[in-house]
Design a protein that fits this description.
Blueprint: H1 2-8, H2 12-25, E1 32-34, E2 43-53, H3 61-66, E3 71-74, E4 79-81, E5 84-86, E6 92-96, H4 98-106, E7 119-123, E8 128-133, E9 136-141, E10 144-150
Antiparallel strand pairs: 1-6, 2-3, 2-10, 3-4, 4-5, 6-7, 7-8, 8-9, 9-10
Length: 152
């Protein structure tokens, strides 16, 4: 049993290195960096375009296009889109590499979204938003990515 002999002959330093390597390999496959508070997305956002859909969506392209022009509201106590209201958001924000993050988390491509790299992703509880700049977001809703502009 050469494999067993390898583990038996490990010295404590080698065992620690092995444990560290295993622990590091369990981290997400995309770089994640801490970011700000995430509350910068509070406000009203108008959908301006249906950019792209994930592999699995609950809307077809026609239905997604019909949402353009509607207002998405992010408040401290709720997220609301039309008659749909989500529980209070947690505003957890992180900076990620968009291509890897979208492939792993949404089974989607970043190519049509025009996101900066890295991009800030804010978790709103029932969905996530990607911050393009202070007045533009990409909002993920029902499997579709929508371009949105802040309403004043």
């Amino acid at each position: 049993m050469p494999f067993l002999r390898c583990f038996i002959s490990f010295q404590p330093v080698h065992a620690c290195a092995l444990v560290a390597a295993i622990a590091l390999s369990s981290w997400p496959g995309f770089p994640v960096h801490a970011a700000g508070d995430g509350r910068s997305v509070i406000g009203q956002w108008k959908f301006t375009a249906a950019l792209d859909g994930a592999e699995i969506t609950s809307l077809d392209e026609r239905e997604a296009d019909q949402l353009v022009g509607h207002v998405f509201t992010v408040a401290t106590d709720k997220v609301q889109f039309g008659s749909q209201v989500c529980l209070p958001p947690d505003f957890q924000e992180k900076r990620v590499e968009p291509r890897l993050y979208l492939r792993e988390q949404a089974h989607a491509s970043a190519s049509r979204l025009g996101l900066p790299n890295p991009v800030s992703v804010v978790d709103l509880g029932c969905t996530v938003v990607f911050v393009k700049n202070p007045n533009r977001l990409v909002i993920f809703w029902k499997g579709w990515f929508f371009d949105a502009r802040r309403l004043r």
